[in-house]
Amino acid sequence: MTSPAAATFIEQILAPLHAKYRELHEGDVATYIPELAKANPDHFGICLTTIDGTTHAVGDCDVEFTIQSISKPLVYAMALGALGREAVYAKVGVEPTGDAFNAIVLDEKTRRPFNPMVNAGAIATTALIPGATLDARIESVLATFSAAAGRQLSIDRRVYESELATGHRNRAIAHLMLNFGMIEGIVDEILDLYFMQCSILVTARDLAMIGATLANMGANPITKQNVFDVGSLQDVLSVMFTCGMYDYAGEWAVRVGLPAKSGVAGGILAVVNRQFGIGMYSPRLDALGNSIRGVRACSELAEELGLHAFNLMNVGSHFMKGLL
Amino acid sequence: MTRFDLLSTDAAHRVVVHGNLDLAGSGAIRAALLAALTASPRRTLMDLGAVPLLTSAGIRLIVEAAKILRAANTQLVLRTPQEFVASALAIAGLDSLIVIEKAADTRPAASTP
Lengths: 324, 113
Known about the structure:
heterodimer; A: 5-stranded antiparallel β-sheet; 13 helices; B: alpha/beta; 5-stranded mixed β-sheet; about 25% strand
């Protein structure tokens, strides 16, 4: 269990951090999916869950919102676990791209999407999820996300229908990939599954627990259920580190230095490997589609807690530390 | 707000820090503290007894101060850290840069201002 001193320390950091950024009112909620525009812009929650299952929550950590793009690394982990690195790599690359997350662009040489964190790559990854029927695949995704969160999650049907009605760009991307053989099967079913996975409802508390599951070698800290294949996690966290924050990924790597993924509903999930998960929620977004409060609070949290991968206190290899 | 007192002799500085050494606290004293050490580098005893909270941001400031002194062939000594602060310093693994004297170790030294 987290020691009382450590728990007090974390609370001493989180409470003022929340109070400070609660007063920040920059940015607007996403509107390109009409249902997302209905979010309360003032909601703000910060949650941290350690791999022993201890949770520290401040603010609106139980408000539900749709997971959106934070579903991408989770489905990527599922695909890697089911098919292995090479099979997934044949369809989706791992290179960062300077293009927008919804760009209709593939790698000119390989015809693959650049990485699984942009829409094209995420749709290609979704297409790899095994299942006899669409319903079986939807159930598989929902069950995996629920197992990671440690509670039964559900789909926001209104957001799903809103995405379905307005997702023309994603439809174009999917057909382009079908043309180049990067996806196989029925495009409408693949997109159905993609829109469904984006419409799963979570809270900041759920994101912290899902992050803790990723941090905990793929096992949920409370239920102990093995949710993600441990051999896939290094790949998943690497892609989150390099590509997870849309076109802010490079600056995020410099300022925060953690594997993370944001979603346009205002969520951010970050992972401190083998220690804890972070979930943040604030629907006010910047021009790149990231939660403004979430990015700033994560940046400050990383500085206070020494979370950055290259923080002066973090040793390179714990294994080698024992040998040197 | 975090502040520090600086008492100097020809042989040493004594820096007494009051308040949290977190991002805000270390930011409040960084410029003045580092400027003082840079202008006159000498053995420095930094008293942390009145620092209830030390975060990674505070440790970075301590490392910056230690490096300034080390470059001048002298030393930073941290004194009387509270229990959790001492624990954070130990975990940071900065023993090669910094000497830490806990409360029980503290004794009058000829060089203490």
